[in-house]
Give the backbone structure.
Amino acid sequence: MANLALTRTRTSLALLLFATIVALAPPITSTGLAADAPTTEDRIDFEKQVAPIFEQHCVRCHNPGNEKGDVSLSSLSDLLENEYVVAGDPDSSYLVDLITAVGDAEPEMPKESEPLTKEQVELVRRWITEGATWPESVVVREPSKADSSWWSLQSLASVEPPSLEGLPEGWHVSPIDCYVFAKLAEKKLHPNPPADRRELIRRATYDLHGLPPTPEEVEEFVNDADPNAYEKLLDRLLDSPRYGERWGRHWLDVVRFGESNGFERNVIINELWPFRDYVIRSLNADKPFDQFIREHLAGDVIDKNEPNVVVGSAFLVAGPYDNVGNQDRVQAAQIRANTIDEMIRATGEAFLGLTVGCARCHDHKFDPIRQTDYYSLYATFAGIRHGTQVVATPEQRTEHAARLNPLKKKEAELTKCRQEVNDAVLRRKEEIATLEATWPRPPIARTGTEETFEPVTTRFVRLVSEGKDTNPGDTRSFRVDEFEIWSSGEEPRNVALASHGAKASGPSRQIVDFPGAYGPHLAIDGKLGKRFFATGGYLTIEFPAPTAIDRISFSSARGEANPGHGNFSFLAEYRIEVSDDGKTWKTIATSHDRKPVNNRHREHRIRTQLMTPEEKSELVELDRDLQQVRREIRAIPPLPRVFVGSRQSTAKQPFHVFLGGSPQKKGERVAPASFSALEEVTPPYALDDSAPEATRRTSLADWIVHPDNPLTPRVLVNRLWHYHFGTGIVATPSDFGYMGVKPTHPELLDWLARQLQEHGWRLKPMHKQIMMSQAYRQSSDFQPAAAEIDGDARLLWRFPPKRLSAEEIRDSLLTIAGVMRTEMGGPGFRLYQYLQDNVATYVPLDEHGPETYRRAVYHQNARASVIDLMTEFDQPDCAYSAPRRAETTTPLQALTMLNHDFTLDMAGALADRLKREAGDNPYEQIKRAYQLCYSRTPTDQEMNDCKAFVEEHGLFALCRVLLNTSELIYVK
C-alpha cells in the first residue's frame, strides 16, 4: 500500500466525535482488543486472515525501513499512533477509508498493486470491529520470493547413484558418471570418447598446478603402460606444492584478498601476505576445510598462541575498508556500518552462498533472510577493527623480551641521568632571568614573520632552519607558503618573485605522481595556498643581478583560520644569510633575540646557553651511550606483525536493527544468532548480546560448519566443480538463492557434498574423485547436434574447453621460457610503481625485471591497480569477491601479447632456451618449441612452415609467434 497521505481532511466535528469515541470506548489491552470484547469461535484470526493481506498489498511500501506516508503496517503500534485504526470502530479508522472504493472511483490504496477485493476489505473491517487484535508475536513482513522450502536450504539428500543401462565403457565405475549420464540420457545426448593422453596430462596439470607440463612429464605419461598411470599422475600433481599455489589463487579470489585498503586512499598493506601464504600452506597440507573455515572466522580464538592458525582470521579484514576517517559523528557511524557490512557479505557469500548483504536495509526480497539475521551477524562482527598486530608464538615472545628488556631498562636509566643534567640547568633562576632579558622580540608566527636590517647588496639569500616547533633539535624539514625579499629605496618591491627573475632552490618534497604540484617556486610565486616543503632545512633565492635589500618576510600559514593547528611542523628557530657567490655566507638576521615559540624551545635555549663545559661533556657521554643502546635495540628483529585486525572484547551494546540501513534509526534489539531460515535443518544458536566477542565468532563458525548445515558443503563442492569444468553445477557459485541459477545436477551436488563430509572435509580426495571420472576425462571434441541442445555443454557431453586465466598465461610464458623462479612465500613482488602522498597511485611497469619472474599468486595485488597483460586478460579487481572469472576477447589482449616488453623478453628467453636444449638444428628447435608450448610435436606441414619462417625471420620471431597462438592459452 503505497504513499499513504500525510494529511487527512478531518472536520472539527469529526475530530470532536473521534475524541468522544475514544474517551467513551472500553479500555484497550496491549493486543489492541477491547477488554470486554466477546470471544467466539468465528472471530477473525489476524495471523491467518488479515496479516496476509498486509503482506501482499501493504508492507512493500509501509515498513520500518520504508515508511511511506510516515506509517508502517508491520505492527499495530504505528496504526494506532497515527489514527489509521480505531479499535472497535472501522468507520472512524482511516485505513478503511483508504482501501474502500467510493462509487466508481478506485480506492486510494494500494497504489502499486490490485485493489483489495470486497471480501478482503470486509475482513479488515471485521478485524477492527472485533478490537483490532494483533498478537505481539506476529510481525508482518513482505514475503520473499523464496521461503525456507527453497532447494538449497533443505538437508542434504541421501540418494543412491542411478542405476542405468547403456552406459559407455568405463562410465559405470564412478557414481559421478552415473549422475552425469542420467542427465545426458534425458536429452538423448551421448558423451565424447576419452581424450588422448597428451590432452589429458595438459588438462590435469593446468587444472591442479596452473602450469604446463614439461615435455619429459608428457612423454613419461604417454608411454606409461601401467593401467593406473592416470591415477599416479593425479597423485603426483596433488602432492606437489604447485597445487596449493594454483588452488590458493582460486580461494583468494573468493575471499576478496587484496593488499591495499581501497577507497580513495588505497594505500598498500604490506603485512597481509602471510594470509596468502597460510592459504597456500593449508591447501598443500590438505587441511580439513571445516577447520579452515573456523580459522578464517576465529583463528585468533581457536589457538591464539599458534601463528599459523591466528593468521587465518585475517580473512575478516582482507577486504577493502575506508580509513580516511570523518569527524562528523553521523558519517563516522555510516562508514563503520559499511565496514562491517563488507565482512558480512564476504562471510555469507564465501561460505554459505547467500547474498546476506541484501538484508541490510530490509528483509531480503528474494531469499528468506530477515533483516534481523543480517544484524545478528552485525553483532557478531562488531568487535573487529582493521589493523596489524603481533602474531608470534609464546617462545618467540619470551626470547624477544629476554633480549629487549635489559636494553630497555638500560635506556631508561641513561634517559633519567640525562634528564637530571638538564634539570640542574633549569634550576638556575637568576641566570635564566638574565638570559630571557635578551629576547625582547615576539616569537616567530606562522601567519607572518618579518626581519629588517641595514641595506645589504647581494646575489643570494638563504633561509636556514635551526629548529621546528615540535622538535627543537630537528633542523631538517619545514614549510613556507611565501618567502618575500624587499628591495631598499623609496619604492621597495618583492625581488624574490619568480616573475622578477628570482630563482628558488633547495631540497624539497617532490610528489612524483602529481608533478608540479609542489616545488621551490611556490615560495616565490606571490600566491598563497600551496606550500614549499623544505626537506633539507634551507631555501635559497638567487637574484638575476646583485640587489640591495633591507627587509625579508615569510609565512607558513598566512590566511588560515586556525594557523596554530596546521598539519605540518613549522619553522621555530632560523637564521637568514646572504652571499655574493653562493658559497661564502654571512648572517644578517636570526631568531636568537626572539622569544621562543613554546616552552620546549625555551628550555632548549636555556640548556644550550647556560650549560657548563663539564655538564656538556657529561651529556655528550650520556648521549653516546644512549645512542649505542638504541642501536642495539633497533638491531633486534621485531616480532612479526600481520594484518589480522584487532578485537574489541566489549563492542558497543546493545545491538539493534538499523531501519533502512541507517545507524541513526535504531529498530528492534538483536543479538548474535543463527539464520532463522535454517532453524529446521541446522541446530540454531542464540547468544545474549553481552556474550564475549570471541564466543560470537566461534559460535558462528561452528554453526556454519555444523554437519547438518547443508549450505556449506554444497557451496564448497560446487566451487570445486566450477574450477574443474569451468562452470559449477550451480552456475552462480556464491549465490544459491532465488536470484542464483538452479543446479543442473541437484542429486550429484548433494552426493558430492556428502562425500566431502565423509572424507573429513579434505579437498584432495574430492579432486581425485572428480578428475578420475569419465566425464572429466572425455575429449572436448565438438558435436554440432549436441551443441544445438546444450550449447554450453552444461550437461557435459564433452569436456568444456577453457581459456587460461591471466595468472596462468603469465606463469606459462615464464615456464616455457625457462626463467620461472619457484621460491615460495614471503612479501610479494610488484608489477607497478607505487607512489603515495596521502592517496596512492599505481603506475604499471613497462619493463618486468627478473625479480618479478615468480608465480603470479605472489604478486602484491593492490585494489584498482592496472597490471599489463594480467589486467588485459581479466584478472579481477580484488575490491570484490570474484567467484567467477570474466572472459573477454579484446584487441588489447593481442596487442599486449605481441608487443609488450615482457612478452618480447619471454620470446627472447625461449629462443635462448631452444638453442641451449636443441642445439643449432632448426628441426630440433621447432620440435622442442612445440613440446614446450603445446605438449605435442609439430605436424609435417607445421614443421615445414616454421622452418621456412625461421630461415626468413629468425628463431626469435618464431618464438614470438608461438607465444601469441590460441593453442597456447586454451586447454581442451
